[in-house]
Amino acid sequence: MSTWGVDLWDNRDDIEKHTLNGIEFLDKCSGFIKDRIRIEQEYAKNLRRLVKQYQFRKKEELPFTYQESFKGFLNETDDFAGQREVIAENMQENVLNKMQKLASDLKADRKKAISTLNDHKANLDQLQKAMLVAKKKYEQASEDANNALKSYETASQSLDLTKAQILKFQKVSQDKGHLAEKASDEYKLATDNFNKAQTLFYEGDLPKTINNELQKPEETRIEMLKNFFIEVSNIQQKVQPIISRCLEGMVKAAEICNPAKDSLTLIDMHKTGNSVPGNVAFEEWGKPNASSQPTPTPIAKTRQKTTKSSVFAMSSKKKDVVVNENVANDYSDLPPAQRKKKFNKAISTLNDQIEQLEKARAGMIKIADTSKQFGGDMASIHGQIESNTKETEKLKNLLHQYNCYLSAMDSSDPKNNSRRSSVDDLPPPPVDKQADLSDRQLSPGFTGDFDDEMRCTVIYDFSGNNEGELTVYAGEELIVIEEDDGSGWTRVMRGQEEGYIPTSYVQNI
Question: From start to end of 45-97, where are the E strands?
C-alpha cells in the first residue's frame, strides 16, 4: 500500500500544505452547517411568531367549523415549527459541535506532527554539521601530518642538519600523524552517527510521523466529513414522518370545515322562534271590515334590569352567565331559542362549579381528619367546610331554578309538548260547522255575557292564513265560544273577530 511517508518523503511542504487546506475546508463546511442551523432556527422562530399573531384568544368561543379548522391548522403549523427546531438542535449537537471539535483536534495534531518532524530534522542537521566539522578537521590534520612527514624525510637526507635537528623533525612528524589519526577517528564516528540518524529519520521517524500523524488524520477528516453529510440527511429523515403527520394534520384540520353545519350553528345562535308576519287583508273602500281592526302586536317583554351590586359572575370562564345572588336570571328579554341556550349554559357552568366545590370539600374533610389526629386547628377547617357547604347549597338552589325554567320552556314548546300536535298534521278547521261569521252566531249555550264565558290565554303566536282561522299572538286573552271537539281546533273570539286556532296554542284560564 502506498503511503505518504514512503512515496512523498521528499515532499513535506506539499503534504503540510495539503493537510492545511483540508482543515480549512472542514472549517468551511462547519460554517455552512452553522448557517443552515441559523436558517432553521429563524424559520421556526418566524413560524411560531406568525402562529402566535393569528392564534385565537384562550377564552374566545369558536362556534363555527371554519374557526376550529383554522385553529387546528395553526396548531399543526406550530408543531411543524417545533420539528424545524428539532432539526436545528440535532444538527448543532450531532454535526456542528463534532465538526468544530474535529477541526480543533486536527489542527493540534498537525501542529504536533510538524513540530516532531522539525525536531528530528534539526537533530539530523546538527549531526550532519558535526560530521562536516570533523571532516574538515580530519582533512586539515591529514594535510599537516603529510607536510610534517615530507619535512622529516627532507631533513633526514640533508647533510647540513645535526642529528638532534633531524630527531626534532621526526618527532613533529609523529605528533602530526597522531593528530591526523585522532581526527580520522572523530570524523569516522561523526559520519557513523549521522548515517544512523539519517537512516532512522528517513526510514523510521519521517514516514511513521507522516503516515500516523498527517496521512491518517487527513483520511479520518474525509471519512468524518462523509459521515457528517450523511448525518445531516438522517436528521431530516428522522423527523420527516412527524412533519408528514403535521402536514396530514393540516389537511384534516381543513376538512373540519362544514358549510352546512356552520349555517345550522348560525341559526341555533340567533334563532328567535318568532313567527313570520301574516298577510295583510285587503280593505274595500267605504265598507267596514272586521280585519280593519288594529292588529294586536305581541306583548313586549320587559327587560330585566340588574344592578351591579346584586349580580356576580358565576365563572371567570363564562362571564356572560350573570345571575342574582339568590335568584336565577330568567333572561326574559331574549327570544325563546336564545333563552334556552342561556339556561343550558348556566346549568353547565353551575354543574362545574358544584363539582369543584364538592371536590374541595372532600379534600378539606381529609385535612380535618388528619388535623384531628395531630391536634391541628379544627375551628378554622370547620369554618371553611361550613362556608363551602353554604356556597354549594346556594349554587344547587340556582341550578334547580334554571332547571325549572328549562323544564317550563320544554313543556310549553310546541315541538316538545306531547299534548300538542303539529299544526300541519291537524285537519282543516270545521268551517262547515262554523256559523256565518258575519251573522256572529255563537256556540249553543252562549248567552252573550262574556263575563260568564270561558276564557283562554294565547301562549304561542299563530298565523291564520286559511279560511276560518284567526291570527293571534302570545299573551292575548280570548273568549272561548266553542271548545275543541276532538279536531284539535278551538273557536275563539277577540273583539269583533272570531275564528279557529289550534287548541295546543292556548291555555284555559
Answer: none
336-411 maps to which CATH number? Answer: 1.10.287
- The type of residue at 398 is L
Cα 488 to Cα 484: distance, rounded to the nearest angstrom: 6
Domain range summary for the chain, segments of one domain joined by +: 4-256, 336-411, 455-508
SS3 322: strand
Residue partners of 272: CB distance under 8 A and separation at least 6: 335, 336, 337, 338
CATH code for the part of the protein at 4-256: 1.20.1270.60
Q: Which three cell numbers stand for residue 79?
A: 408543531
Q: How far apart are the first and last CA of the chain?
A: 117
Single-letter code of the amino acid located at 459: I
**Full-prediction pTM beyond 0.70?**
no
CA 217, chain centre distance (Å) = 43
Name the DSSP letter for residue 392.
H
Q: Which cell numbers hold the place of 122?
A: 534539526
Amino acid at 247: L
Q: Which of 104, 71, 84 is nearest to 41 (CA)?
A: 84
Q: Which of 168, 145, 144 is nearest to 155 (CA)?
A: 168
455-508 shares the fold of 336-411: no
The residues that bridge with 477 in the sheet, in sequence order, are: 457
**Could you give the CA distance from residue 181 to residue 190 in angstroms, rounded to a whole number?**
14
Cβ of 75: how many Cβ atoms within 10 Å?
16
What is the SS3 string spanning 117-186?
HHHHHHHHHHHHHHHHHHHHHHHHHHHHHHHHHHHHHHHHHCCCCCHHHHHHHHHHHHHHHHHHHHHHHH
Residue tagged 291537524 (cell numbers): 426
Q: Which residue has the cell 613533529?
A: 172
Considering the domain 455-508 in this protein, what is its CATH number?
A: 2.30.30.40
Residues 300-346 have pLDDT tens digits of: 333 333 333 333 333 333 334 444 466 777 777 777 777 777 888 88
Listed in order, strand segments (DSSP E) in 404-487 are 455-458, 477-482
The model's confidence at residue 64, banded by pLDDT at 50, 70 and 90, is: very high
* DSSP 8-state secondary structure symbol assigned to residue 311: E
d(CA 339, CA 329): 10
Integer Cα distance of 489 and 434 in angstroms = 12
Question: Which amino acid is located at 369 in the chain?
Answer: D
pLDDT (tens digit, 9 = 90+) per residue, 486-509?
A: 888 899 998 888 999 998 888 887
